[in-house]
Amino acid sequence: MPKMDLEGKKRGLELHLAEIRVRIRRYTLEQPAEAKDKDDGKLLLKAQEAWNEWLDVRAEFYDLPDDAPASRIRAVEHKLLQVDRKVDLIQRELVSAASFYSGIRTTLLLALVLFALAVTYLLTHGVHGLDISQFEPLAEWGPLKYVEVAYWSTFGVLCWLLFLSASYVSRRDFDSWYQPWYLATALRAPFISVIVMIVVLEFVEWYGEGGWIESYLLEEGNKFYFIVITSFCLGLMSDAASGILRDLAEGVTQFVRAVVQRFSKKLGSAIMPDKSFEK
Could you state, in order of their start, the residue ranges of all structural domains in the chain? Predict the structure, then answer.
């Protein structure tokens, strides 16, 4: 198996590990009404056994060397699938029918919001009927370009959340307690993307001055498509964009702390007693 395929396989296994961890934690905490008359002790014991097995598989996964052969990766995947199956059986006993209705409501609401946002976007861009030839992008220069960023990053995050909710409904495992998380993720995504794109557009323009970035990506006309694609991807990968912004925030915090410390030292030196008069 090529090295790139092995790396992709390992990333997929890592995501699967994280997903199973969330499921086991949920099934340990959640006891729907339908499960009250059942032997909850046995279910919790099964969940704990699944957790212990998951810890073993996790340890084996992170012990894999960088050049691990495909056979070792497949062996870890096999064990992880066995744990996943045990978690499926616990899910069958615990997850209530209300999970389906919560998932359907959330999915339909996300689809409705996405449709309404698309209509609003077209109306604000000059399209008032079926003729889209009147479409006119907002300004590619100045603050108005960040309205495009907010629009397209919201499209991206809504598409991701819509797929995510439908995926959990199809697996009969939608968690109604996650509905506020869907709302918070959708609301924060455009703000995160706008801040990241301010850095990209204002500083990349300077960085790419005189090169192919300025002459092609940021050229009049092409810049709109660059903004659309980048903003949509930032919304689609909202968690990754949040990590990027966190790195930026740490750098800004260190910068501000250094400035404040220097300013404080300057103030302190201004009020230090002059020891030349002390004898």
Answer: 3-95, 99-254
Query: Crossing angle for the helix pair 222-236 and 145-170, nearest 10 degrees?
Result: 40
**Alpha helix stretches (DSSP H) within 125-207:** 145-170, 179-207
CB 105 within 8 A of CB 174: no
The tokens for 212 are: 């192919």
CA-to-CA distance for 120 and 152, rounded, in angstroms?
12
DSSP code string of 13-54:
HHHHHHHHHHHHHHHHH---GGGTTS-HHHHHHHHHHHHHHH
Task: State the amino acid at position 14 in one-letter form.
Answer: E
Phi, psi angles (nearest 5°) of residue 131: -85, 105
Q: What is the pLDDT of residues 123-154, one digit of tens each?
A: 887 777 777 777 777 776 777 888 889 999 99
Report d(CA 112, CA 100) in Å as an integer. 18
Interhelix angle 238-270/179-207, rounded to 10 degrees, is: 70
Question: Cβ–Cβ contacts within 10 Å for residue 83, how many?
Answer: 23
Polymer length in residues for the chain: 279
- Write the DSSP symbol of residue 231: H
Identify residue 257 by its one-letter amino acid code: R
**Tens digits of residue pLDDT in 220-239:** 667 788 888 889 999 999 88
Q: DSSP string covering 198-224, please? A: HHHHHHHHHHTTTSHIIIIITSTTHHH
DSSP state letter for 141: S
What's the whole-model pTM score? 0.71
d(CA 23, CA 84): 9
